[in-house]
Structures are given as C-alpha cells and as structure tokens.
C-alpha cells in the first residue's frame, strides 16, 4: 500500500491535515470550501473527486461548502450545464444548502477593482492582437517584451477601459492587462490578461456586459469575496498561485484564501477532459452526455452505478500531491462490491436457446421458489414458472464440447438453478445447421436442484420459462477506449469498436419486465443491470452496469 492509500483508509490526507492544524492553531474559526465548476459541460468522475474532497471536508470539520459556477466565458456556457451540474452534485449525495453562487454575481465588484488597479498604475489597456501578445510573452527560457502600450497614462487607460465596457470596440480589439513583470520567471506573472472584449449573451447577465474577466482574475477574487478558507484545486494551478496572491495583495479583498493543489484523477481506458467529452457527444461517437459509456456522472448514473460506489472509490484512491493514473479496475471493484451487497437476484437469458423437456407433461406449469439475495434472507423469495418449454443461454450448450466444458452437451446432465436436473437427449437444427432447439428430459426426483441419490452435476445454469418470461433488449457496455492511455489529441482512433453490444432477443423474468423500478438487479451469472430510460411498456431495455467478474482484460485484450 502507498502512503496515500494508508492515509485514505483512515480518511486522512495532506489537505485534511492542513485543515486540522489550522483549526488546532486557532488560525481559523470556521472552514469554508467550494466546488467551482465552469458550466461548459457535464460533470465527470474526476469532478466527483473534487466534490467529495470539498464537500467532505466541510462536513467533517463542521464547515460549509459553496457551489460556485465559474461562469466567465459566455460563449461556452449554457443553462443546461448549470442544471445538470446541480443535479449531479445532489445525486452524488452532497448539498450546498443556501450557498449557491455565480462568479457573474461579482462582475460589478471585479470591474471596480480593475479600475482600482488602473488608478494604482497596476493595469493597462493593450491594443496588441492576441497573437502579438502571445509572441511577446516569451518562453520558459526567454523573458517577454514589454507592450508598446504598457506605459499609457492612467487617464487614457481608464477612458479606454470604460469604453471597452460600454461596448465601443469589437471583439479582440483590446484587453486589460495587469502590469507586473514581463521578465518574471513565472509566465503567469508576465502581465496577464484581466479582461477581454466579448459581445456575447451571458446565461445570467444577458447583454449587460461587453467585457468579461479572465478565469485567473475572477477565480481567486470570487473565493475572497465568499470568505473561502481553503481554496482547493488541481495541480495545474500551482503556477498560478503567485498571481492569485498578487491580486490578494493589491486589491481591497475582504478575505485572503489559501490555495492548496492536489493531483487530478486520471483513469486508465478513460479520458477526463471536458473538451474531449464534448466532442464525443457532438461528433456522435456516443448517444449523449448520459451515454452509459461516458465517464460523466450522468452516464454513470444511467449505467446504474450507485453514488455510494463513487464515494467509496474516491475515498479509496485518496488525495495526493503527485499525478498518477488509477486503474479503472479499482472503480469497477467498488461498483461490484456495492452492488453485490444491495442488488436483488433475478434471471435473464441474453441469447436464448429453446429447450423442450420431453417428459414434462404438456400444458402443466409449476412454481419454483427462487431466493432474492443469497446473503440477505430478509430480501425474501419469488416464484418462477417452470414448464415443458424453457430457454437457456446459447453459450451454455455445446454440441461438441472441449474437455473442460461442463455445461450442457448431448448426453450430459446439469442443474437448472432452483429447479431440476436436466439431461440433453436431442438436438434440432435449422437448414443452415444451426442448433435451434434442444430436447431434454428432467428428473422429477431432483426438485429444488438436488438428487436424493446424491449424484452430482458439474454445472448450474440459469433458465427462464418460454411463455412466461418476457422479451427485452439488453445493452452490454465495454470500455469506450481500447487503449489504457487513449490519446486525447486523436481520441477517435482509440475508440473501442466493441464498446456497445446489443442483445435484442433477450428474455427476462416477467415481473422484472413489468416493474418500473430503477434499482439495479443482478441477473445471475451475467452481472448487474438497470432499466434504461429508453424502455417502453412493451419493450424493456436494460443496461449492464458491470459484469460479475473482471473479464475486461480478455474482452479488449490489453490491461496487465
Ligand atoms: P476539464 O479539464 O475536464 O475541462 P476543468 O478542470 O476545466 O475540467 P472545471 O469545471 O473548471 O473543469 O472543474 C471544476 C473543479 O473540478 C476544479 O476545481 C477542478 O480542479 C476539478 N477537477 C476537474 N477535473 C478533475 C479531475 N480529473 N480530478 C480532480 N478534480 C478535477
Ligand atoms: Mg477549469
């Protein structure tokens, strides 16, 4: 075990240690954190890590956690995303109470502070193009060059900035920049852009603004306005911290948050970037943000993944300061563990093969009692009809079995779960030679699945009654990408062509078909399944949440 995972088991990590010591030393009386998504896409499982960290710390230390939308880029942001983010945070089990905020609530104050920077000689309007600014910024090894507009008089800067605000200039004509140091070793300090001109309608402020603050300018100040004590973000913002601290020093902010950086979640076979996820949706590689193959919270939910499994996963991976990649098998393990405990058992046949029990009286039916959960007697039992015509799984029969095949083949005997022993006595094929029906006999003395003479069978198979089961469509999902580290720049090439398999002729227990429940169930020997929203009354559709065992390495060929 790594140090992080040992700490994670104990529910500790370096950020919680910092919070604890701040409280112990009485540096702070209350803990305030926030989760600050930009509403430009749906949340994914990486965000769940940040949500669990921020809301979790607030819960554990008696503080509060704000939900703040960082809505500073109206060209990419939409109300649909704002709504989905709120729904997903709630679904994960967290609540911001009355602490719902938007960076756009602070536009007025941020603007006033920017004028203050201009008056203090700490900001200027630059007329260079975006490209000129980029080139003059220099590189890691070369200093940048001062803009020819850097020493504009304060009055001219104020006048131009006000006219930018009034909408006098077209997009991109000018920007407001902080006046820090074009030779700074940290590129973020080379006169960063504070405001850009953007004639765009904002989901909340409409057409009021023609200029919008940069993320770097808005983010830290929003934290300061809200009194955030621990501003927790991912490692890529570590180099931005000196800039955020510069703002806190120069502006009349009401509080001075401290920023702490942690490693973002990376998962094998998965891309966690909103840019990529947006493109997967836009280009039709998936059916939408909630496609069950997506690592989005909406996709995981539709797939049947319980929020408790996500919380457990996030707890197990812990919080570290160094980037790493987590095996997606760890997430799958947490899903299986939770579902094994909570899911009722039922039977389904994905690829039905008809079986006729020749010695079972025609027209007769009996009820077989089946248990709903092997480890939980309180889950009770149910009854399944057993008669002359049944379905078994096509894969459970082989006409010419290899040595280690213990399921049904000509002459062999197997147990039908909860019911009887059956023996295969004949095969019926269609014109093309495909097996379409089996003829079997059953042993009436083996009712319940045991032989009074003590004879054993090597396989127990699931089955369903032919007429008393219902048809269903079953969707089996595999990894969306076929490589452990898909290439974010060229992700389409790494998409797994077998990421979705659809079984249109599946059969399920009648009661499952008729139920509207959204609870995940285990179809015995198949995995965990949940009813999909595409279901209609006559056409139930089930998603496989996950298989029973890790067959993934075999399916895609790769992993380990
Ligand atoms: P992306 O890089 O996918 O576009 P983002 O970081 O720009 O995502 P935001 O909406 O800004 O998306 O993210 C909100 C919060 O979630 C931020 O604090 C960010 O650090 C955190 N976050 C985003 N991705 C991850 C991840 N993979 N692991 C942990 N935290 C993450
Ligand atoms: Mg971001």
TrEMBL record:
* Domain Glutamyl/glutaminyl-tRNA synthetase class Ib anti-codon binding intervals: 344-443
Kindly list the places in or outside the cell where this protein is found, as annotated in its UniProt entry: Cytoplasm
The source organism is Bradyrhizobium erythrophlei
Q: Where is this motif: 'KMSKS' region?
A: 271-275
UniProt enzyme class: ligase
InterPro entries in UniProt: aa-tRNA-synth_I_CS, Gln-tRNA-synth, Gln/Glu-tRNA_Ligase, Gln_tRNA_ligase_bac, Glu/Gln-tRNA-synth, Glu/Gln-tRNA-synth_Ib_cat-dom, Glu/Gln-tRNA-synth_Ib_codon-bd, Glu_tRNA_lig_a-bdl
EC nos: 6.1.1.18
Q: Which GO terms describe its molecular function?
A: ATP binding; glutamine-tRNA ligase activity
Spell out the protein name for this chain.
Glutamine--tRNA ligase
**Domain Glutamyl/glutaminyl-tRNA synthetase class Ib catalytic positions:** 31-340
Q: What is its main location?
A: cytoplasm
What top-level branch of life does the organism fall under?
Answer: Bacteria
| Residues annotated to bind L-glutamine | 70, 215
Q: Which cellular component terms (GO) are annotated to the entry?
A: cytosol
Q: Motif 'HIGH' region located where? A: 37-47
- Oligomer and partners: Monomer.
The record places domain tRNA synthetases class I (E and Q) anti-codon binding at 460-532
Q: Which UniProt keywords apply?
A: Aminoacyl-tRNA synthetase, ATP-binding, Cytoplasm, Ligase, Nucleotide-binding, Protein biosynthesis
